[in-house]
Amino acid sequence: METKNESYKVISIEGSLEKETVKALLEFQDGIRVETVIMVYRDWISACLSVMSGCPLDCKFCATGISGFKRNLSSDEILSQVSFWNKYLSEFKSRVSHVVYMGMGEPLVNFKETARSLSIFSEELAKRISASKITVSTVGIPLKIIKLADIGMKNKLAFSLHSCFNEIRSGLMPINIKYPLEINLEALSYYFQKTKSRITFEYVMLKNVNDRDEDIEALVKINRRIPSKLNIIPFNSLKHMNPSGISLELEPSSLYRIDQFVQALRLKGVTVMVRNTFGDDIQAACGQLASTH
Fold first, then answer.
1. For this structure, is 48 an active site residue?
2. Distance between alpha carbon 63 and the CA centroid of its chain, in Å?
3. 164 classed as catalytic
4. CB atoms within 10 A of CB 248
5. 157 occurs within a structural domain
6. pLDDT lower than 50: segments of the chain
7. Is 36:73 a contact under the CB 8 Å cutoff?
8. Calpha distance 273→143 (Å, rounded)
């Protein structure tokens, strides 16, 4: 399928066999491509937006990093993904109700355009998508977390945690070498104090890496320090990217261990959600987006 628009053309649309996820590959005027996804829930439809084509941060559990970095997207290109999905959904008399900046790329590295797109949401689309229904995800750029709080946006913030221990986190996420966890936690505390919005900690479960008993205790300490909730994410396969090194060695925690892990955290008073895997049959699940078509 290929349809044209002033700023992009649609290269392909894939629907998951589960019928809860649809992924589109869009191409902008200079030939750069990005993937964007909608997830259809019972009461809402969430659009997962990309802010870059590829990503320079090289997180070892993420296909986008493996695909390499092409360029940042403009705010218009970010917002065009919502416009595209609303046009697609109009056939079903539906529209996007929630937005997550969790597609390709790091929103706070592309801070200027991310912030501008959030401002446009706030000024022009608030009647349809309120700030409380918009979540920005980040691997942790402390000064930009503080700046995002200071510019007065009321969106939710999700922090890609994945380990509470710097040595492990740096192996999974090289950005942690430059911005260790402690200074990110200080920035997240500031963000909560400024916005009164609870932080969501994202946590991909990796066998024998971050699913140990000591990881449970460390997560409890962070939860007591910062008003937050924990989003547990099953690790999704990267085989479609032919990974090497650490990325090749990563394995998902068993469903049994995930259940044990979650129950132990809940017994200690941590608010925990387990994210269902949507769209892994079309490589549209968390961590699987790439522009390598």
1. no
2. 12
3. no
4. 12
5. yes
6. 1-4, 126, 278-293
7. no
8. 28
Q: Which of 48, 59, 62, 286 is catalytic?
A: 286
The number of residues making up the chain comes to 293
Residue 130: predicted pLDDT: 82
Give the range of the structural domain holding residue 209, as residue numbers without chain letter: 3-282
> What pLDDT is stored for residue 249 in this prediction?
82
Residue closest to 5 by CA, chosen among 121, 87, 113: 87
Residue 281, Cβ density class (10 Å: 0-12 exposed, 13-18 middle, ≥19 buried):
middle
What's the rounded Cα separation, in Å, for the pair 134 and 48? 10
- The 10 Å CB-count burial string (b at 16+, else e) for 109-133 is bbbebbbebbeebbeeeeeebebeb
Q: What is the pLDDT of residue 279?
A: 40
**Contact in structure between 291 and 67 (CB atoms under 8 Å):** yes
- 7: DSSP letter: S
Residue 60 lies inside a defined structural domain of this protein:
yes
| Annotated catalytic residue within 27, 35, 106, 113 | 35
Tokens standing for residue 121: 């949401």
First to last CA, the chain: 14
- Rounded Cα gap, residues 190 and 273, in angstroms: 24
Structural domain contains residue 291: no
Determine the pLDDT at residue 153: 80
Does residue 293 sit within a domain? no
Q: How many domains does the chain have?
A: 1
CATH code, 263: 3.20.20.70
| Structure-token pair, residue 136 | 């920005």
CB atoms within 10 A of CB 260: 15
- Extract the tokens encoding 45: 């439809």
